[in-house]
Amino acid sequence: MSIDLKQYLRPGVTLPFCAGCGDRILLRLILRAIDELKINIDDMLFVSGIGCAAWIPSPNFNADTLHTLHGRAIAFATGAKVFNPKLKTVVISGDGDLADIGGNHLIHAARRNIDLTVLCANNMNYGMTGGQVCSTTPKGVRTPTTPGGNPYHPFDLCKLVNAAGATYVARYSVTQPSVLVESIKKALQIEGFSFIDIISPCPTQYGRQHRLGTPRETLKFFENRCIMKEDAKGLSEEELEEKIVTGEFSDGGN
Amino acid sequence: MCYDHELMAGASKRKLKSALSANSYYFSGDEAIAEGAIAAGCRYYAGYPITPATEIFETITSRFREIGAVSMQMEDEIASICSCIGASWAGAKAMIATSGPGFSLMQEAIGYAVITETPIVLVDVQRTGPSTGQSTRVGSGDIMQARWGTHGAMPIIALSASSVQELYDQTIDAFNFAEKYRVPVFLMAEEATAHLRERVDIPEEIKLFDRKKKAGAAPFGTEESDGVPPMPTFGEGEKLLVTGSTHDAYGIRKTVDSLAQEKLVTRLHSKIMNNREKIIEYEEHYLEDADIAVICYGFTARSSLFAIERLRKEGKKVGMLRLKTLWPFADRAISNVGSRVKKMLVPEMNMGQVVGEIVKYASCEVVPYNQVNGEIIHPHTIIEQLRALL
To answer: Are B4-207 and B282-389 the same fold in CATH?
Structure first.
């Protein structure tokens, strides 16, 4: 990590992430966005739930952090933001936390369109507890709780949040760092509910169970799957099955 | 596109009018709770409609519009209490009111408020249970849940009122206790009192307590004798670490450190239990020469007092002790009365909850009376029960 970004880390912390964890990359990209926007981190509040991604801000960010209950980060953030609208409130948590156990809070916060930025680190499984299936796991994928393959279709979180009424909705992968940083900057600046579904690979659980190889190969696997939505236009449904379509799905009128 | 803050908050354009002026008013219990909260400085409320607590939500929402504060109708009771905890750390005195089903949903977050030492006031307007039960009818089946409902339960403060006036007064007490001890405080109201209309006298002066603040001090540890650390607010540059995991004095997670776990839990326990004599309130009636004491709380105390006064006119030596604080439990008062009387009668609108605590501390014979039909316990019922014991 560059010297510039270290200033945003709480003195004495050791980052807890596994080798090749997307969340470690994401942590750096979030700080880069904050640094480039020159936001005073003391004016920010970082709220997270339970799971690996919830540890991105807590205790690592040298700012006000609220590490909450499983699934409820957005509800906590809503209370803090509504009572003190000056707090630049950012929710950083995982897909299981925000979309499974916390799914109801996610859609209602999007509907209310309160000025929150929600960064969903999507590793397509429950990484911290051993890689079990979750609502974003692709169909057919084997996990410890779906040994015969996941029988269900995953959520398209962007479609879900968009339909619920959010102002800004995007999906990018940590393997697309430049566009992701720009997207986070946009999300932080837009007034209203902004949501980014961030593909954040989990080599330890998802990568291992799917025999994707080393952490580097796992990242490569996702890098190759992600395409920009403009490039997805000409592809057939079959071709799209293998792809993760990234881009902005609601740009807040900008 | 963004939400309308003006619409939501009433946005303080109107003349500020916070607490009601000193006078006599005619309120329902639910309205009195809302007014008590505003007088205590409550400026954030989150809720979800539920009988018989809805009128608290409606009253406080319309009053908040006059003072520029915000109430939020959340998607469920879990979100409601979580948003109150978030608002409390943002500096608000926050309240939530519910009834049994909502109270059950809130249990996990109550534990979060306990371990993060977040002041919030939770009103449980009790109705019959279990489950949906009879939503418009009275019970007091949540007393043990208040103390033990969340996993790894630690002491909290729970109050019980017998009149509309007392619901007003105890709502203010609840905020003061929450701020003073950094703990969730429960007002264990009952449908019968919440929907009762009575006179409420609002005094000229109301004593309020605000959370201690000390810049740079550890927010989750203290050497002070009261065991309550100062509480900073988000946005003050304190770089707060608030977590529901076991933590040290500065909020750093200590997930496998036995000493950190023991130290935190011991302090959470002792900051309430060591101060319990300052917290506990009760009221004695006709106990000086009594042979039988009725130990009661909430609406049942009204019927009990009526019954005792009737029997006193007949020369019967009966008295009563009314618990105004349910948790921490008034162990010394019960032990004291238990050594003076021959028998205790404990009428409750449940299958026996507080009676179990009384048996722990009273040396005399303790007789429960349990009524769970969704009706108040009538004075004649208590007279009958007392006659059988005389």
So the answer is: yes
